[in-house]
Structures are given as C-alpha cells and as structure tokens.
Amino acid sequence: MEADRTIERFLEHGGLSAGTQRAYGFDLRAFSAWLERSRLRLDEVGTGVLADYVAELGRGRDRLAPASISRRLAAIRAYLRFTYGATSVPDASLAPARPRRLPDAPKEEEIAALLERVEGDTPLALRNRALLELLYSGGLRSAEVVGLELGDVDFEREAIHVRGKGGKERLVPLGEEAAHHLARYLRDGRPQLARSAVDALFLSARGRPLDTSTVRRLLRNPHRLRHAFATHLLEGGADLRTIQELLGHSSLSTTQIYSHVDARRLRRVYDRSHPRS
Fold this sequence. Notes:
This protein folds into two domains: about 1-90, DNA polymerase, domain 1; about 110-270, hpI Integrase, Chain A. Helix content is about 55%, strand content about 5%. It contains 13 helices and three strands. The protein has a three-stranded antiparallel beta sheet, with no helix packed on it. A hairpin with a 4-residue loop joins strand 1 and strand 2. Helix 6 (about 125-140) packs across helix 10. The radius of gyration is 22 Å and the shape is globular.
C-alpha cells in the first residue's frame, strides 16, 4: 500500500529520535491498516477521516486512553506534513480532552534517601550516583542523560550541554552536588569501566554507552526526578518561563502543568507580605 512506503520514508528521513521513530512507527502502521480496512486512500485523509478514526480508537473494550489517541494524531499529522506539506494537515482539534494530572514529584527527603541508597565506592556505584544527581539537578530526560558525551560537561562554566527532543540543544546548570559526584565518577569510576576510546559519559560494566533501560533499572520511573526538579525550583521562587527553558519544552503550555506549584508559592508570598492577607 502507498502509505506503507511513505511511512518508512518518513521514519527514516523525518528527523525523529530513535524512541519517537519506534512509537510513531507503531501508530502509523496501525493507521495504515485502518485505512486499508476502510478502503480509503492516503490522499483522502482529511478532518472527516481523522474524526472517524479517533471515534473508532475511543470505542469498545480495547479503546485507547485520551493521551494515546493524542499521540497517534500527532504522529499522523507529522507524517502528513512530511509527505504532502503543511497545508494538507487537518488543523481541527480532534483529540479527546484529557485530565491534566499533577506530576507525582518526590519530596526532597525522598530524593536524599534515594541518592543515599546508590552511594558506594565501586565504579558502578559512582556512576549511578553521578547519573541520578544529574537527572535531578539538571531536570534531564533519561535519553538525554545517557546521550551525554565527555565534551558535554563544562566544569569551569558549571554547565551541561544537552541534546534534547527533536535535535534541540540547551545548556543546563551543573549543580554543586552533581559536579562533585560527576568529578568523582570521572576520576575513580569511569577509567575502570572504559574498554576503548568511547565518548559516552556514562558507561556500562562492559564499557559500552548506556541505554535508558539501565536508568529504569536504577529508578522505576526516572521521570519523577524531572518533575521534582521543576517542582522544587518553582517552590524556591523560579518562574515558569525559566523552568520551560531548563526543561527544554518548546511550548510554555507544556510547562504550565506545574502552575499549581506556582500558585501555592504565590499564595505563601501573599500571606507573608500583604497586610490584609
């Protein structure tokens, strides 16, 4: 089918990360199969066709959650944009509304306990402590932290160069605790793990670059450290725009899920400062 060929071209040349390629590939092949069952051609896809597809995804015992439907729509729109151009992409809002759940951010004492659990003097223990410190102090995604290279660390400027989603790059501050544990890992841990000239910052027991599965073995939901990073910064007085830049969000609307934290902080400031609070 025509769609299958163009999907593979999009996945290969669409500038997607490996993780996004896998997710979009699954979503788009499911869409292609639905088009075939519905006897529809790819060039017939418009608002009406997408509305029918969304309705089917939300029906029955195997219906998808709103977040999953939104991801499928995002994949289809990106694919149509790549294949036919921006003007061919239906711009109607079709995804079902989904609740904006507050991030489950661990408290500072929880994070301290977590970091203490991985403390040790072996090369892997030094690596694990440095890696988790970076996740929390820099708000990095799992894929971003395992993608770091030696040249991305600038101790003099106290900064980390991060390559994020969609090829976007940013600088995040290197906190004092993270810098200490990272320097210790580079001095006492990484040389014992390295088997060859590898640029990756974090290495496996066999001297290879890590993948995100290693991070998930250390922490079942590493994204909670990213939530904690944003939440604790807001509670400490940072504004949402700054958090957006540090997290690497392309849109402020994504960062606004943390606005409940900002509202609580503003209330505390108001209560302390206003004579009629």
